[in-house]
Amino acid sequence: MSDEEIRVGGYVLKGGTGVYMLLDPETEDPRATIISQGNGTWRARTLDGEAKTYQPPDEIERPALWVAEQFVPAAEEGTDGR
Q: 3-class SS at 3?
């Protein structure tokens, strides 16, 4: 998955090769990062520091998308209303 762009909730997931960002769809301002930590674990963090670690099930073909789908509610709570 390289330079892929997918809508997830109110965000756009964009990136590839283990590094992704959740972006505001209108301004493309970053709202959160999603990074592969290796060994099947991923770390998602909002700009205000809210962070969670996820381990997608082995059968998931697109782990970054799966993490984004789990993390979007936390990212939405961490926005400043813009």
A: coil
**pLDDT, tens digit (0-9, with 9 covering 90-100), for 15-61:** 999 999 999 999 999 999 999 999 999 999 999 999 999 999 999 99
Which residue stretches of 1-82 are H helix?
63-77
User: E strands along the chain, which residues?
Assistant: 4-8, 11-16, 19-23, 30-38, 41-46, 51-54
Tell me the C-alpha to C-alpha distance, in Å, between residue 82 and each of 43, 44, 47, 75. Answer: 24, 20, 13, 13
* Residue owning tokens 């205000």: 48
Note whether 59 and 49 are within 8 A (CB): no
SS3 62: coil
**Distance (Å, rounded) from C-alpha 49 to C-alpha 75?**
10
